[in-house]
Design brief:
With 587 residues, the chain is of the alpha+beta class. The chain is built from nine helices and eleven strands. Strands 5-4-7-8 form a four-stranded antiparallel beta sheet.
């Protein structure tokens, strides 16, 4: 934050540059400072140059100031050099303190500052310089190294200052571009302002013309009112004679119109009741279809669970089948080995027979051959017993494999049957969804029709109110006519308290009505007395539903998918998107 403020201050201080500022000025003599205005700064006649003591904090801490010279034809030049002259009377008298020049614009912002200087006599300055020249400075190696380090640090600071200078130049260029853009926008706004001024002048002219025409129309209106009063005086004389007959005729017409309006209102009520009955029937049908749909969905879920179980059983039976087939192959290989051993036994028997014949010829070897023969017979018996066990085991495995195959065929048949049932139930579910969609469309159409009927009823009620007010005015006029005195002065001079609007209403009320107007005016009498049906509004979507119960409204509100955190309606969102939205509140 401090670096940004320092950069802004550097940008503003670099817009006015003070040049050729010496280290000191002689006291009691006029001081002239030279400064240069950059192309990024636009001078103002109210700008001023002041002398400030070093360490000043605000622009009010100046010692003295002079107004800047007025600059003419500066727009096309990049830099402009000017001078400011301070008289010796207003200069500081202190020769110890240091001062500097500051350029302050009309808004109180400092746009440039000079290097510090002081006020000293030339003799003192020469003496200080001479004493400095005569001094012999002796430095050590440590001081030399320290000076080298300080020089390196100064070079680093110089590089940093150069980099900051480059950044300030770039920022100055950007600001210059922004200033150019703002100038273009300002010119465009000036053009728009001139166009708006022209339009405003045209509107003013039109307003004057309209005022003139309004005055003419008011004059015409006054003249028409006078003529209408004269005609009303003449008509009142005639209407006194015809009031009785007109009253009876108007009453008969009003009664006929009232009867027609009552009949139409009753017809509309019957139609509304029929629509409500149809809507109730359709709602019951939808509820039944929804219950069937829920049952079908439950059955479908059960069927899918059973299908999954059957699939697991099928997989396990297939594994058992593979195991049994491997065992059967192993037993086949054992039986094959048994056949080989049988052939070997036959060969051994043949050899034994040969040995017996040889034993008869060689009696000395009888004992040895008998022992060998016994050993061979024992091995043969053991092998026969093992072959019997193997054949029994093979037969058992064959039977078990056959049972497993039968079970596998049953499971496959049951799986196909359940698959057919599930397909059938999905088809029924799809048909039920289509039926519900059709019912929803019909319900929307009926609701639209009921809204139209309600709107018509409201319009008819408004017309009925206006007609009743009109009838009241007519009755007052007739009552005034019956109770008015018979003197001619009353008919010649209208009452001053009667407004012109009432007179015009009386004049209009006495004009004969056409049959179409009277039918349109009185066809809705009685609709005002009918109480308006209360509208139930959904607290989520703010939609009104005429002609439904509180339970139906609660079912509608429960059908919305609401976010439990921000109460946003998420009906059109997918389940994954809705879950991501809910989880985003918990992060």
């Amino acid at each position: 934050m401090e670096s940004s403020t320092d950069a802004a201050a550097a940008r503003t201080f670099s817009q006015v540059l003070f040049t050729d500022i010496p280290h000191s000025y002689p006291p009691s003599t006029p001081v002239t400072c030279c400064y240069t205005l950059t192309d990024a700064f636009q001078p103002n006649p109210r700008d001023w140059v002041g002398i400030f003591k070093v360490g000043w904090s605000t622009t009010k801490d100046y010692h003295t100031f002079v107004w800047v010279e007025t600059c003419q034809d500066v727009a096309g030049q990049q830099t402009v050099t000017r001078n400011a002259v301070f008289k010796e009377y207003y200069l500081p008298k202190d020769e110890i303190e240091f001062y500097q020049f500051c350029y302050v614009d009309s808004t109180g912002q400092v746009r440039g500052a000079s290097t510090p200087f002081c006020f000293k006599n030339p003799v003192e300055q020469n003496m200080e310089s001479s004493t400095d020249d005569e001094l012999l400075v002796i430095t050590t190696q440590e001081q030399v190294e320290q000076s080298v380090r300080e020089k390196a640090e100064m070079m680093k600071e110089l590089d940093q200052i150069r980099e900051e200078n480059e950044t300030l130049k770039k920022a100055l260029q950007k600001e210059q571009q922004e200033v150019d853009n703002l100038k273009g926008q300002n010119e465009q706004k000036e053009i728009e302002k001139s166009e708006l001024g022209k339009e405003l002048d045209q509107i003013k002219e039109q307003n004057v013309n309209l005022k003139f025409t309004l005055q003419e129309q008011l004059q015409e209106k006054d003249s028409l009112k006078e003529e209408m009063l004269l005609q009303m005086k003449k008509q009142m004389e005639i209407q006194q004679q015809q009031s009785v007959s007109l009253d009876r005729a108007s009453r008969q017409i009003n009664e006929e119109k009232y009867d027609r309006a009552v009949m139409k209102i009753n017809q509309l009520k019957e139609e509304r009741e029929e629509l409500r009955g149809k809507i109730d029937v359709q709602i019951d049908e939808i509820a039944k279809i929804n219950s069937k749909l829920r049952k079908g969905e439950q059955e479908l879920f059960k069927m899918t669970d059973s299908i999954q179980l059957l699939q697991v059983d099928l997989q396990s039976s297939e594994k058992e089948k593979e195991r049994l087939s491997a065992e059967l192959q192993r037993l086949h290989s054992v039986t094959h080995n048994m056949d080989d051993m049988k052939r070997e036994n036959q060969e051994l028997c043949r050899r034994l027979s040969q040995q017996e014949t040889q034993q008869q010829s060689f009696p000395d070897n009888d004992l040895r051959t008998q022992t060998q023969l016994q050993d061979v017979q024992e091995k043969l018996a053991a092998e026969k017993e093992e072959s019997k066990n193997v054949t029994k085991r093979a037969e058992f495995l064959e039977r078990e494999l056959q049972q497993v195959r039968e079970q596998l065929d049953g499971v496959i048949a049951l799986y196909e049957q359940t698959q057919r049932k599930s397909n059938k139930q999905e088809l029924q579910l799809r048909e039920a969804h289509e039926v519900i969609a059709d019912k929803d469309g019909l319900i929307e159409e009926k609701e639209h029709e009921t809204m139209l009927v309600k709107h018509e009823n409201e319009e008819l009620s408004k017309e009925n109110q206006s007609l009743r007010g009109h009838n009241e005015e007519l009755r007052k006029v007739f009552a005034d006519l019956h109770t008015a005195p018979s003197s001619d002065s009353v008919y010649m001079q209208p009452d001053a308290s009667t407004p012109a609007g009432a007179a015009s209403n009386i004049h209009e009320s006495q004009q004969p009505e056409t049959p179409e107007q009277s039918e349109n005016l009185y066809e809705t009498i009685g609709s005002v007395a009918e109480p308006e049906e209360e509208l139930l509004v959904c607290r989520h979507c703010q939609e009104s539903f005429p002609g439904i119960t509180q339970n139906e409204l609660e079912l509608h509100e429960q059908s919305h998918r609401m976010c439990p955190f921000c109460t946003m309606i998420c009906d059109n969102m997918e389940q994954s998107v809705f879950e991501d939205h809910v989880y985003s509140h918990e992060l």
